[in-house]
Amino acid sequence: MLSAKSLFQEILDNDESFRLFCSIAASGESQGGWENARIAALVPESERDLAPKITRHGADEDKHGRIFNALMKKRGLSPVEVPSDTDYTMLLERHGIGLAHDKLKSDEPLSVQDIVTYLAHSRVTEQRASEQMELLRRNFGDDPDLGRAVKMISNDEDNHLAYCHEELLRFARAGHGRAIQRTLRECAYAEIRVYRDVSLAVMAHMGRILGWSRPRAATLAAGIHAVYAYERVMGWRRMVSLRMPERRDALGGPATAAPEFA
Questions:
Q1: Is the pLDDT of residue 99 over 70?
Q2: Distances (CA, A) of 54 to 47, 138, 184
Q3: Dist. CA 207–CA 221, nearest whole Å
Q4: CB-based contacts of 87, cutoff 8 Å, min separation 6
Q5: Is residue 86 exposed (0-12), middle (13-18) or buried (19+ Cβ within 10 Å)?
Q6: Model-level pTM?
Q7: What pLDDT was estimated at residue 261?
Q8: Does position 262 have pLDDT exceeding 60, yes or no?
Q9: For the purposes of burial, counting CB atoms within 10 Å of the CB of 79, is it exposed (0-12), middle (13-18) or buried (19 or more)?
Q10: How far apart are CA 245 and CA 257, in angstroms?
């Protein structure tokens, strides 16, 4: 029977598919680290108290990239070039989600609305990241090689999501509620399309590496389309709701160190 665990296990057991999986993950996390570092440097004066939290967010993302690279190194593997059709962060930017890199590369301070946009984008994408890492944690948390990495990254993603909820609620109380809801909806609709397209691309690349049959590849593609259909109709709502998190001030301290992989 095809299940999420059996699918991931097959990918993880093969060096080439594992290398592609980790390379894609490491690239996305490193990109997120750069983006957060630039945002922290350009925070407007009125929101400077946010800068340490944004810096912590970026440091966590950088750490995750190092973890995925370390997992490859432990198996004697080196990163591969990430196929453009699997580059989640780049495709989100092309769809106008988040802050444009041209803006982040300049030295002009961001506006408060830019920060609201950043937080709304992060709230949507961190929802996805939190759910994906929880799936891996549930299935591989006890794995001797992956367990520590999966648990650490999953905890960090939960912290990032909590931080986004708390800060967006603060901005909503300050009068940005309508803009927040509009931006969240726009981000959610774009993200579920990009996630569908990236998932189809990743599975196509994995299928070629692992030699999946056409019926199996078609079954996986149908599952991805079914998830998209559900998210397009109602699943997107989980990405736009806001509630005060149990984890308060989740990014209020320094980033934790990455584990060692002997």
A1: yes
A2: 11, 28, 19
A3: 11
A4: 24, 27, 28, 198
A5: buried
A6: 0.94
A7: 62
A8: no
A9: middle
A10: 24
